[in-house]
Amino acid sequence: MSQIEEVSVAKFKHLVSERALTGETMLLNMGPQHPSTHGVLRLLLELDGEIIVSCIPDVGFLHTGIEKNMEAKTYQKAEVMTDRLDYMNPLGNNLAYVMAVEKLVDLDVPARAQDLRVILTELQRISSHLVWLGTSGLDLGAMSMFLYCFRERELILDIFELVSGQRMMTTYFRPGGVWRDVPVEFEKAVRDFVKVFSKRVDEYETLLTKNPLFLDRTMTLGRLDAALALSFGVTGPPLRASGVEWDLRKTRPYMGYEQYDFNVPTRKEGDVYARYLVRVQEMRESLKIVEQALNKLPLGPVRSDNRKFVPPPRSEIGVSMEALIHHFKLWTEGFPAPKASVYSAVESPRGELGVFLEGDGGPKPLRVHMRTPSFDNLAVLSQIVKGCLVADLVAILSSIDIVLGDIDR
Amino acid sequence: MDKKLEPIVKAVQDKFGSTVEEFRNEVHMLVKPEQIMAVLTLLHDEQHFELLSTMTAVDYYPQSAPRFHVIYQLTSLAKNLSLQVRVPVSGDIPKLPTASGVYNAANWRERELLDMFGIEFEGHPDPRRILLPEDTVGHPLRRDYPLGYEEPQFTFNFEEVDLGKPYAKE
Fold first, then answer.
1. Superfamily in which the A66-305+335-408 domain is placed by CATH
2. Is residue B169 very low, low, confident or very high in pLDDT (cuts 50, 70, 90)?
3. CB-CB under 8 Å, A375 with B103
4. Domain B5-163 -> CATH class
Protein backbone atom coordinates (compact mmCIF):
# COMPACT_ATOMS: atom_id res chain seq x y z
CA MET A 1 0.00 0.00 0.00
CA SER A 2 1.47 3.26 -0.99
CA GLN A 3 0.76 6.60 0.50
CA ILE A 4 2.08 9.98 -0.48
CA GLU A 5 4.17 11.10 2.42
CA GLU A 6 3.51 14.66 3.42
CA VAL A 7 6.52 16.90 3.87
CA SER A 8 6.87 17.27 7.59
CA VAL A 9 7.06 20.92 8.56
CA ALA A 10 8.39 20.15 12.02
CA LYS A 11 11.85 19.29 10.69
CA PHE A 12 12.23 22.61 8.91
CA LYS A 13 10.35 24.89 11.22
CA HIS A 14 13.39 27.06 11.93
CA LEU A 15 13.79 27.65 8.19
CA VAL A 16 10.25 28.49 7.11
CA SER A 17 8.04 31.41 8.10
CA GLU A 18 5.43 31.09 10.83
CA ARG A 19 2.69 31.11 8.23
CA ALA A 20 3.82 27.68 7.04
CA LEU A 21 3.09 26.22 10.47
CA THR A 22 -0.52 27.36 10.38
CA GLY A 23 -0.93 26.11 6.84
CA GLU A 24 -1.39 29.55 5.35
CA THR A 25 1.49 29.05 2.94
CA MET A 26 2.14 25.89 1.01
CA LEU A 27 5.23 23.69 1.04
CA LEU A 28 6.13 22.35 -2.38
CA ASN A 29 8.84 19.94 -3.42
CA MET A 30 10.74 20.83 -6.55
CA GLY A 31 12.97 17.97 -7.59
CA PRO A 32 15.02 15.84 -7.08
CA GLN A 33 13.80 14.74 -10.50
CA HIS A 34 13.03 17.96 -12.29
CA PRO A 35 14.33 19.05 -15.69
CA SER A 36 15.30 22.56 -14.63
CA THR A 37 17.22 21.72 -11.46
CA HIS A 38 20.13 20.66 -13.69
CA GLY A 39 20.69 17.41 -11.89
CA VAL A 40 19.39 15.79 -8.75
CA LEU A 41 18.72 18.80 -6.59
CA ARG A 42 15.69 19.01 -4.34
CA LEU A 43 14.33 22.40 -3.44
CA LEU A 44 11.73 22.68 -0.72
CA LEU A 45 9.74 25.80 -1.48
CA GLU A 46 7.41 27.65 0.80
CA LEU A 47 4.89 29.36 -1.45
CA ASP A 48 2.37 32.10 -0.96
CA GLY A 49 0.35 31.63 -4.11
CA GLU A 50 3.10 31.71 -6.68
CA ILE A 51 5.50 33.86 -4.66
CA ILE A 52 8.43 32.14 -2.95
CA VAL A 53 8.56 32.90 0.76
CA SER A 54 11.51 30.66 1.53
CA CYS A 55 13.58 28.09 -0.29
CA ILE A 56 15.46 25.24 1.35
CA PRO A 57 17.93 23.46 -0.92
CA ASP A 58 18.47 19.79 -0.16
CA VAL A 59 21.63 18.33 -1.66
CA GLY A 60 23.49 15.04 -1.42
CA PHE A 61 21.58 12.85 -3.87
CA LEU A 62 24.74 12.39 -5.92
CA HIS A 63 27.11 11.86 -3.01
CA THR A 64 29.64 9.23 -4.02
CA GLY A 65 32.28 9.58 -1.31
CA ILE A 66 34.99 10.80 -3.66
CA GLU A 67 37.04 12.37 -0.88
CA LYS A 68 37.00 9.16 1.14
CA ASN A 69 37.91 7.06 -1.88
CA MET A 70 40.84 9.30 -2.75
CA GLU A 71 42.34 8.68 0.68
CA ALA A 72 42.58 4.99 -0.16
CA LYS A 73 44.44 5.48 -3.44
CA THR A 74 47.96 6.61 -4.30
CA TYR A 75 48.45 10.16 -5.52
CA GLN A 76 48.50 9.16 -9.21
CA LYS A 77 45.54 6.83 -9.00
CA ALA A 78 43.34 9.22 -7.02
CA GLU A 79 43.28 11.52 -10.01
CA VAL A 80 40.62 9.58 -11.92
CA MET A 81 38.16 10.41 -9.16
CA THR A 82 38.50 14.12 -9.85
CA ASP A 83 37.02 13.75 -13.34
CA ARG A 84 33.77 12.69 -11.76
CA LEU A 85 33.41 15.73 -9.52
CA ASP A 86 32.31 18.47 -11.84
CA TYR A 87 31.51 16.48 -14.92
CA MET A 88 31.22 19.62 -17.05
CA ASN A 89 34.83 20.49 -16.25
CA PRO A 90 36.92 17.29 -15.94
CA LEU A 91 40.12 18.86 -17.27
CA GLY A 92 39.81 21.77 -14.87
CA ASN A 93 39.44 19.33 -11.97
CA ASN A 94 42.47 17.39 -13.17
CA LEU A 95 44.42 20.63 -13.28
CA ALA A 96 43.43 21.65 -9.75
CA TYR A 97 44.37 18.25 -8.39
CA VAL A 98 47.70 17.82 -10.20
CA MET A 99 48.69 21.36 -9.24
CA ALA A 100 48.09 20.50 -5.59
CA VAL A 101 50.17 17.33 -5.91
CA GLU A 102 52.94 19.24 -7.69
CA LYS A 103 52.93 21.84 -4.96
CA LEU A 104 53.05 19.21 -2.24
CA VAL A 105 56.04 17.34 -3.68
CA ASP A 106 57.62 20.41 -5.33
CA LEU A 107 57.57 19.25 -8.92
CA ASP A 108 58.22 21.42 -11.99
CA VAL A 109 56.17 21.27 -15.18
CA PRO A 110 57.79 21.80 -18.62
CA ALA A 111 56.67 24.80 -20.66
CA ARG A 112 54.95 22.77 -23.37
CA ALA A 113 52.87 20.89 -20.81
CA GLN A 114 51.87 24.17 -19.17
CA ASP A 115 50.67 25.58 -22.48
CA LEU A 116 48.78 22.42 -23.36
CA ARG A 117 47.08 22.60 -19.97
CA VAL A 118 46.07 26.20 -20.62
CA ILE A 119 44.69 25.44 -24.09
CA LEU A 120 42.69 22.45 -22.92
CA THR A 121 41.28 24.02 -19.75
CA GLU A 122 40.21 27.09 -21.70
CA LEU A 123 38.47 24.87 -24.25
CA GLN A 124 36.87 23.12 -21.31
CA ARG A 125 35.69 26.46 -19.95
CA ILE A 126 34.06 27.22 -23.29
CA SER A 127 32.39 23.82 -23.42
CA SER A 128 31.11 24.20 -19.87
CA HIS A 129 29.70 27.64 -20.63
CA LEU A 130 28.11 26.21 -23.78
CA VAL A 131 26.26 23.60 -21.75
CA TRP A 132 25.17 26.32 -19.38
CA LEU A 133 24.02 28.60 -22.23
CA GLY A 134 22.16 25.77 -23.94
CA THR A 135 20.38 24.50 -20.86
CA SER A 136 19.52 27.89 -19.44
CA GLY A 137 18.19 28.90 -22.83
CA LEU A 138 16.10 25.75 -22.76
CA ASP A 139 14.79 26.63 -19.30
CA LEU A 140 13.61 30.00 -20.56
CA GLY A 141 12.00 28.60 -23.68
CA ALA A 142 14.79 29.37 -26.18
CA MET A 143 14.80 25.80 -27.46
CA SER A 144 17.15 26.38 -30.39
CA MET A 145 20.01 27.57 -28.15
CA PHE A 146 20.47 24.05 -26.90
CA LEU A 147 20.96 22.65 -30.37
CA TYR A 148 23.42 25.34 -31.45
CA CYS A 149 25.47 25.13 -28.25
CA PHE A 150 25.76 21.38 -28.33
CA ARG A 151 26.86 21.54 -31.97
CA GLU A 152 29.94 23.55 -30.94
CA ARG A 153 30.51 21.57 -27.78
CA GLU A 154 30.83 18.49 -29.93
CA LEU A 155 33.82 20.04 -31.71
CA ILE A 156 35.53 20.59 -28.36
CA LEU A 157 34.80 17.08 -27.14
CA ASP A 158 36.30 15.78 -30.38
CA ILE A 159 39.51 17.64 -29.55
CA PHE A 160 39.53 16.04 -26.09
CA GLU A 161 39.03 12.65 -27.64
CA LEU A 162 41.92 13.35 -29.98
CA VAL A 163 44.35 14.12 -27.17
CA SER A 164 43.23 11.81 -24.40
CA GLY A 165 41.07 9.13 -25.99
CA GLN A 166 38.09 10.20 -23.91
CA ARG A 167 35.42 12.78 -24.54
CA MET A 168 34.70 13.54 -20.92
CA MET A 169 36.58 11.58 -18.26
CA THR A 170 39.94 12.58 -19.61
CA THR A 171 42.51 12.27 -16.78
CA TYR A 172 44.88 13.84 -19.28
CA PHE A 173 46.95 16.00 -16.95
CA ARG A 174 49.30 14.03 -14.73
CA PRO A 175 51.52 15.17 -11.88
CA GLY A 176 54.59 16.61 -13.62
CA GLY A 177 53.04 17.21 -17.04
CA VAL A 178 50.46 15.60 -19.27
CA TRP A 179 49.78 11.98 -20.16
CA ARG A 180 51.51 12.17 -23.55
CA ASP A 181 52.11 14.64 -26.31
CA VAL A 182 49.23 15.73 -28.50
CA PRO A 183 48.89 14.16 -31.97
CA VAL A 184 49.81 16.17 -35.07
CA GLU A 185 46.15 16.76 -35.94
CA PHE A 186 45.68 18.69 -32.69
CA GLU A 187 46.83 22.07 -33.93
CA LYS A 188 44.59 22.02 -36.99
CA ALA A 189 41.59 20.89 -34.97
CA VAL A 190 42.00 23.73 -32.48
CA ARG A 191 42.63 26.31 -35.21
CA ASP A 192 39.51 25.20 -37.06
CA PHE A 193 37.52 25.54 -33.89
CA VAL A 194 38.92 29.01 -33.12
CA LYS A 195 38.11 30.10 -36.66
CA VAL A 196 34.43 29.13 -36.52
CA PHE A 197 33.70 29.79 -32.89
CA SER A 198 33.90 33.57 -32.62
CA LYS A 199 31.26 33.86 -35.35
CA ARG A 200 29.13 31.32 -33.53
CA VAL A 201 29.19 33.39 -30.34
CA ASP A 202 27.89 36.31 -32.39
CA GLU A 203 25.08 34.03 -33.56
CA TYR A 204 24.14 33.13 -29.98
CA GLU A 205 24.09 36.79 -29.10
CA THR A 206 21.78 37.67 -31.98
CA LEU A 207 19.35 35.11 -30.59
CA LEU A 208 19.41 36.25 -26.96
CA THR A 209 21.24 39.44 -26.04
CA LYS A 210 18.64 41.88 -27.36
CA ASN A 211 15.70 39.51 -27.47
CA PRO A 212 12.88 41.35 -25.62
CA LEU A 213 11.41 38.09 -24.28
CA PHE A 214 14.79 37.05 -22.89
CA LEU A 215 15.36 40.51 -21.38
CA ASP A 216 11.95 40.37 -19.67
CA ARG A 217 12.77 37.03 -18.11
CA THR A 218 16.27 37.91 -16.92
CA MET A 219 16.77 41.62 -16.19
CA THR A 220 16.61 42.81 -12.55
CA LEU A 221 15.94 39.25 -11.51
CA GLY A 222 17.82 37.44 -8.76
CA ARG A 223 19.86 40.46 -7.65
CA LEU A 224 22.96 39.49 -5.71
CA ASP A 225 25.04 42.27 -4.20
CA ALA A 226 28.76 41.96 -3.79
CA ALA A 227 28.89 41.94 0.02
CA LEU A 228 26.33 39.15 0.30
CA ALA A 229 28.09 37.17 -2.43
CA LEU A 230 31.46 37.39 -0.68
CA SER A 231 30.02 36.49 2.68
CA PHE A 232 28.50 33.35 1.19
CA GLY A 233 31.75 32.47 -0.53
CA VAL A 234 30.33 32.93 -4.03
CA THR A 235 33.08 33.03 -6.65
CA GLY A 236 33.36 32.89 -10.42
CA PRO A 237 30.93 34.46 -12.89
CA PRO A 238 28.19 35.17 -10.28
CA LEU A 239 30.69 37.19 -8.23
CA ARG A 240 32.04 39.01 -11.27
CA ALA A 241 28.50 39.81 -12.41
CA SER A 242 28.07 41.55 -9.04
CA GLY A 243 30.93 43.91 -9.75
CA VAL A 244 33.89 42.23 -8.03
CA GLU A 245 36.83 41.77 -10.36
CA TRP A 246 38.25 38.55 -8.94
CA ASP A 247 39.62 35.93 -11.26
CA LEU A 248 42.38 33.67 -10.01
CA ARG A 249 43.90 33.57 -13.49
CA LYS A 250 44.58 37.29 -13.16
CA THR A 251 45.09 37.77 -9.43
CA ARG A 252 47.17 34.66 -8.74
CA PRO A 253 48.40 33.50 -12.13
CA TYR A 254 49.26 29.82 -12.47
CA MET A 255 50.41 27.78 -15.48
CA GLY A 256 51.79 30.96 -17.06
CA TYR A 257 48.47 32.83 -17.31
CA GLU A 258 50.39 36.07 -16.72
CA GLN A 259 51.76 35.81 -20.30
CA TYR A 260 48.37 36.04 -21.97
CA ASP A 261 46.48 39.15 -22.86
CA PHE A 262 42.86 38.79 -21.77
CA ASN A 263 40.24 40.74 -19.87
CA VAL A 264 38.14 39.76 -16.89
CA PRO A 265 34.58 40.68 -17.82
CA THR A 266 32.59 42.18 -14.96
CA ARG A 267 29.15 43.74 -14.63
CA LYS A 268 27.67 45.87 -11.90
CA GLU A 269 24.02 44.75 -11.92
CA GLY A 270 24.32 41.32 -10.30
CA ASP A 271 21.15 40.00 -11.94
CA VAL A 272 20.53 37.00 -14.18
CA TYR A 273 21.17 39.05 -17.30
CA ALA A 274 24.52 40.28 -15.96
CA ARG A 275 25.61 36.70 -15.32
CA TYR A 276 24.60 35.83 -18.87
CA LEU A 277 26.66 38.69 -20.30
CA VAL A 278 29.69 37.83 -18.17
CA ARG A 279 29.71 34.21 -19.28
CA VAL A 280 29.24 35.01 -22.95
CA GLN A 281 32.09 37.50 -22.74
CA GLU A 282 34.22 34.92 -20.93
CA MET A 283 33.84 32.54 -23.85
CA ARG A 284 35.35 35.18 -26.14
CA GLU A 285 38.20 35.83 -23.71
CA SER A 286 38.92 32.10 -23.40
CA LEU A 287 39.08 31.90 -27.16
CA LYS A 288 41.69 34.69 -27.14
CA ILE A 289 43.78 32.73 -24.63
CA VAL A 290 43.53 29.53 -26.68
CA GLU A 291 44.70 31.35 -29.78
CA GLN A 292 47.65 33.01 -28.02
CA ALA A 293 48.72 29.80 -26.32
CA LEU A 294 48.55 27.88 -29.57
CA ASN A 295 50.67 30.49 -31.38
CA LYS A 296 53.43 30.29 -28.79
CA LEU A 297 53.19 26.56 -28.04
CA PRO A 298 56.86 25.58 -27.64
CA LEU A 299 58.35 22.25 -28.62
CA GLY A 300 59.93 20.08 -25.97
CA PRO A 301 59.11 17.50 -23.34
CA VAL A 302 55.58 17.27 -21.97
CA ARG A 303 56.56 15.60 -18.72
CA SER A 304 59.02 16.42 -16.01
CA ASP A 305 62.12 14.20 -16.04
CA ASN A 306 62.10 13.84 -12.26
CA ARG A 307 61.94 10.04 -12.20
CA LYS A 308 61.08 9.90 -8.51
CA PHE A 309 57.61 11.21 -9.29
CA VAL A 310 57.02 10.82 -13.03
CA PRO A 311 57.19 7.41 -14.74
CA PRO A 312 59.84 7.08 -17.47
CA PRO A 313 58.78 6.85 -21.14
CA ARG A 314 57.95 3.37 -22.41
CA SER A 315 60.93 3.35 -24.81
CA GLU A 316 63.42 3.64 -21.93
CA ILE A 317 62.10 0.71 -19.95
CA GLY A 318 63.55 -1.90 -22.29
CA VAL A 319 67.07 -0.48 -22.24
CA SER A 320 67.55 1.13 -18.85
CA MET A 321 67.65 -0.73 -15.55
CA GLU A 322 66.89 2.44 -13.56
CA ALA A 323 63.90 3.23 -15.75
CA LEU A 324 62.51 -0.25 -15.13
CA ILE A 325 62.98 0.12 -11.37
CA HIS A 326 61.37 3.57 -11.33
CA HIS A 327 58.46 2.36 -13.42
CA PHE A 328 57.92 -0.59 -11.11
CA LYS A 329 58.19 1.43 -7.92
CA LEU A 330 55.91 4.19 -9.15
CA TRP A 331 53.14 1.88 -10.29
CA THR A 332 53.21 -0.54 -7.37
CA GLU A 333 54.05 1.69 -4.47
CA GLY A 334 53.54 5.25 -5.67
CA PHE A 335 55.66 8.17 -4.57
CA PRO A 336 55.84 9.44 -1.00
CA ALA A 337 54.79 13.00 -0.23
CA PRO A 338 55.87 15.03 2.79
CA LYS A 339 53.91 15.23 6.02
CA ALA A 340 52.41 18.61 5.30
CA SER A 341 49.41 20.24 3.72
CA VAL A 342 48.87 22.52 0.74
CA TYR A 343 45.90 24.38 -0.66
CA SER A 344 45.95 25.21 -4.32
CA ALA A 345 43.15 26.82 -6.27
CA VAL A 346 42.33 27.36 -9.92
CA GLU A 347 39.58 29.31 -11.63
CA SER A 348 37.07 26.77 -12.86
CA PRO A 349 34.12 27.81 -15.08
CA ARG A 350 32.08 28.03 -11.88
CA GLY A 351 34.53 29.77 -9.58
CA GLU A 352 37.37 28.98 -7.24
CA LEU A 353 38.10 25.27 -7.42
CA GLY A 354 40.50 24.54 -4.59
CA VAL A 355 42.17 21.34 -3.51
CA PHE A 356 43.32 20.88 0.04
CA LEU A 357 45.81 18.05 0.17
CA GLU A 358 47.51 16.71 3.25
CA GLY A 359 50.18 14.02 3.06
CA ASP A 360 51.26 11.72 5.87
CA GLY A 361 54.72 10.85 4.54
CA GLY A 362 53.44 7.83 2.61
CA PRO A 363 52.23 7.30 -0.95
CA LYS A 364 48.56 7.91 -0.13
CA PRO A 365 47.05 11.22 0.93
CA LEU A 366 45.86 11.60 4.52
CA ARG A 367 43.13 13.95 3.41
CA VAL A 368 41.91 15.37 0.13
CA HIS A 369 39.29 18.05 0.27
CA MET A 370 37.85 19.63 -2.83
CA ARG A 371 36.62 23.17 -2.43
CA THR A 372 33.99 22.99 -5.10
CA PRO A 373 32.56 26.31 -6.27
CA SER A 374 28.99 25.10 -6.88
CA PHE A 375 28.62 24.21 -3.20
CA ASP A 376 29.07 27.79 -2.03
CA ASN A 377 27.31 29.29 -5.04
CA LEU A 378 24.18 27.24 -4.36
CA ALA A 379 24.09 28.24 -0.69
CA VAL A 380 23.26 31.80 -1.66
CA LEU A 381 20.22 30.72 -3.71
CA SER A 382 17.83 30.75 -0.75
CA GLN A 383 18.73 34.42 -0.16
CA ILE A 384 18.16 35.71 -3.67
CA VAL A 385 14.93 33.92 -4.61
CA LYS A 386 12.79 35.34 -1.82
CA GLY A 387 9.81 37.17 -3.30
CA CYS A 388 10.32 35.75 -6.79
CA LEU A 389 7.86 33.69 -8.80
CA VAL A 390 8.43 29.96 -9.18
CA ALA A 391 9.03 30.46 -12.90
CA ASP A 392 11.77 32.98 -12.07
CA LEU A 393 13.43 30.53 -9.71
CA VAL A 394 14.19 28.40 -12.76
CA ALA A 395 15.98 31.32 -14.42
CA ILE A 396 17.91 32.24 -11.27
CA LEU A 397 18.99 28.68 -10.57
CA SER A 398 20.28 28.18 -14.08
CA SER A 399 22.10 31.52 -13.98
CA ILE A 400 24.12 30.33 -10.98
CA ASP A 401 25.21 27.34 -13.08
CA ILE A 402 25.51 24.56 -10.55
CA VAL A 403 26.71 21.05 -11.21
CA LEU A 404 25.43 18.54 -8.70
CA GLY A 405 28.45 16.28 -9.01
CA ASP A 406 30.47 19.26 -7.90
CA ILE A 407 28.29 19.89 -4.85
CA ASP A 408 27.76 16.37 -3.60
CA ARG A 409 31.20 14.91 -4.37
CA MET B 1 56.11 34.90 3.80
CA ASP B 2 54.45 37.65 1.82
CA LYS B 3 55.51 41.14 2.96
CA LYS B 4 51.87 42.23 3.25
CA LEU B 5 50.98 39.22 5.36
CA GLU B 6 53.70 39.72 7.99
CA PRO B 7 52.04 42.54 9.98
CA ILE B 8 48.72 40.66 9.98
CA VAL B 9 50.29 37.48 11.29
CA LYS B 10 52.22 39.50 13.86
CA ALA B 11 49.06 41.28 15.04
CA VAL B 12 47.30 37.96 15.62
CA GLN B 13 50.37 36.44 17.27
CA ASP B 14 50.77 39.35 19.67
CA LYS B 15 47.16 39.21 20.70
CA PHE B 16 46.58 35.45 20.87
CA GLY B 17 50.04 33.91 21.06
CA SER B 18 49.31 31.48 18.22
CA THR B 19 52.08 29.54 16.48
CA VAL B 20 52.80 29.93 12.78
CA GLU B 21 54.04 27.35 10.31
CA GLU B 22 55.14 27.92 6.75
CA PHE B 23 55.17 25.41 3.93
CA ARG B 24 55.65 26.18 0.22
CA ASN B 25 54.86 29.84 0.76
CA GLU B 26 51.63 29.09 2.60
CA VAL B 27 51.10 30.41 6.09
CA HIS B 28 49.30 28.16 8.55
CA MET B 29 48.33 29.61 11.88
CA LEU B 30 47.53 27.35 14.82
CA VAL B 31 44.86 28.81 17.07
CA LYS B 32 43.34 27.45 20.28
CA PRO B 33 39.66 26.43 20.05
CA GLU B 34 38.50 29.02 22.58
CA GLN B 35 40.14 31.82 20.57
CA ILE B 36 38.90 30.93 17.11
CA MET B 37 35.91 33.28 17.07
CA ALA B 38 38.01 36.23 18.21
CA VAL B 39 40.67 35.45 15.58
CA LEU B 40 38.14 35.10 12.76
CA THR B 41 36.34 38.28 13.79
CA LEU B 42 39.62 40.17 13.88
CA LEU B 43 40.70 38.86 10.48
CA HIS B 44 37.29 39.56 8.94
CA ASP B 45 36.60 42.98 10.43
CA GLU B 46 40.03 44.57 10.67
CA GLN B 47 42.23 42.76 8.15
CA HIS B 48 39.85 42.48 5.17
CA PHE B 49 39.71 38.70 4.89
CA GLU B 50 36.26 38.85 3.38
CA LEU B 51 36.09 35.40 1.82
CA LEU B 52 36.05 32.08 3.64
CA SER B 53 37.29 30.00 0.73
CA THR B 54 36.75 26.71 2.42
CA MET B 55 36.46 25.03 5.72
CA THR B 56 37.50 21.46 6.25
CA ALA B 57 38.96 19.06 8.79
CA VAL B 58 41.64 16.42 9.03
CA ASP B 59 41.33 13.36 11.25
CA TYR B 60 44.62 12.24 12.81
CA TYR B 61 43.18 9.01 14.26
CA PRO B 62 44.57 7.06 16.23
CA GLN B 63 46.19 10.15 17.69
CA SER B 64 43.75 11.44 20.31
CA ALA B 65 45.01 14.83 21.45
CA PRO B 66 44.37 16.57 19.20
CA ARG B 67 42.42 14.14 17.09
CA PHE B 68 41.16 16.67 14.53
CA HIS B 69 42.36 19.84 12.95
CA VAL B 70 39.61 22.13 11.71
CA ILE B 71 40.89 24.29 8.89
CA TYR B 72 39.66 27.71 7.82
CA GLN B 73 41.07 28.83 4.48
CA LEU B 74 40.69 32.59 4.31
CA THR B 75 41.17 34.89 1.34
CA SER B 76 41.52 38.62 1.24
CA LEU B 77 40.42 40.06 -2.08
CA ALA B 78 41.41 43.61 -1.18
CA LYS B 79 45.02 42.66 -0.38
CA ASN B 80 45.21 39.47 -2.48
CA LEU B 81 46.37 37.31 0.43
CA SER B 82 45.65 33.84 1.72
CA LEU B 83 45.84 32.62 5.26
CA GLN B 84 45.07 29.26 6.76
CA VAL B 85 43.85 29.04 10.32
CA ARG B 86 44.02 25.64 11.98
CA VAL B 87 42.24 24.71 15.17
CA PRO B 88 43.23 21.49 16.93
CA VAL B 89 40.25 19.86 18.63
CA SER B 90 40.09 16.67 20.66
CA GLY B 91 37.46 14.30 21.90
CA ASP B 92 35.09 11.86 20.28
CA ILE B 93 32.46 14.49 19.60
CA PRO B 94 34.49 17.68 19.42
CA LYS B 95 32.75 21.01 19.80
CA LEU B 96 33.59 24.40 18.35
CA PRO B 97 31.68 27.68 18.22
CA THR B 98 30.03 28.34 14.87
CA ALA B 99 31.62 30.81 12.47
CA SER B 100 28.42 31.33 10.52
CA GLY B 101 27.87 34.64 12.27
CA VAL B 102 31.06 36.00 10.73
CA TYR B 103 31.03 34.19 7.38
CA ASN B 104 27.74 32.98 5.93
CA ALA B 105 29.76 30.47 3.89
CA ALA B 106 30.55 28.63 7.12
CA ASN B 107 26.90 27.62 7.46
CA TRP B 108 26.95 24.83 4.86
CA ARG B 109 30.61 23.98 5.42
CA GLU B 110 29.94 23.37 9.12
CA ARG B 111 26.97 21.19 8.27
CA GLU B 112 29.30 19.23 6.02
CA LEU B 113 31.82 18.80 8.86
CA LEU B 114 29.05 17.69 11.21
CA ASP B 115 27.94 15.20 8.59
CA MET B 116 31.35 13.85 7.61
CA PHE B 117 33.42 14.19 10.79
CA GLY B 118 30.88 14.54 13.58
CA ILE B 119 32.27 17.87 14.70
CA GLU B 120 29.55 19.90 16.38
CA PHE B 121 29.28 23.64 16.03
CA GLU B 122 27.59 25.31 18.96
CA GLY B 123 25.04 27.94 18.06
CA HIS B 124 24.72 26.77 14.45
CA PRO B 125 21.41 28.01 13.01
CA ASP B 126 20.61 24.80 11.13
CA PRO B 127 22.48 21.79 12.55
CA ARG B 128 21.36 19.03 10.17
CA ARG B 129 23.33 16.63 8.01
CA ILE B 130 23.82 18.06 4.55
CA LEU B 131 24.96 15.34 2.13
CA LEU B 132 23.98 12.05 3.76
CA PRO B 133 20.49 10.93 4.74
CA GLU B 134 19.53 11.98 8.22
CA ASP B 135 19.34 8.38 9.51
CA THR B 136 22.97 7.63 8.62
CA VAL B 137 25.01 6.10 11.41
CA GLY B 138 28.58 7.32 11.81
CA HIS B 139 30.69 9.90 10.06
CA PRO B 140 32.34 8.58 6.88
CA LEU B 141 35.38 10.82 6.60
CA ARG B 142 36.72 9.77 9.97
CA ARG B 143 39.76 7.55 9.62
CA ASP B 144 38.23 4.79 11.74
CA TYR B 145 35.19 4.51 9.45
CA PRO B 146 35.75 1.61 7.02
CA LEU B 147 35.93 2.35 3.32
CA GLY B 148 33.40 -0.40 2.68
CA TYR B 149 33.79 -3.14 0.12
CA GLU B 150 32.11 -6.30 -1.02
CA GLU B 151 33.78 -9.62 -0.22
CA PRO B 152 34.67 -11.47 -3.45
CA GLN B 153 32.59 -14.57 -3.94
CA PHE B 154 34.61 -17.74 -4.68
CA THR B 155 33.62 -21.42 -4.73
CA PHE B 156 34.85 -22.06 -1.20
CA ASN B 157 32.86 -19.19 0.38
CA PHE B 158 29.99 -18.94 -2.11
CA GLU B 159 27.18 -19.72 0.29
CA GLU B 160 28.63 -17.79 3.18
CA VAL B 161 28.86 -14.58 1.11
CA ASP B 162 25.52 -15.27 -0.55
CA LEU B 163 23.75 -15.26 2.78
CA GLY B 164 24.76 -11.67 3.39
CA LYS B 165 23.46 -10.41 0.04
CA PRO B 166 20.30 -8.34 -0.04
CA TYR B 167 18.20 -10.45 -2.46
CA ALA B 168 14.51 -9.89 -2.82
CA LYS B 169 13.32 -13.14 -1.29
CA GLU B 170 9.74 -14.26 -1.73
1. Cytochrome-c3 Hydrogenase, chain B (1.10.645.10)
2. low
3. no
4. alpha beta
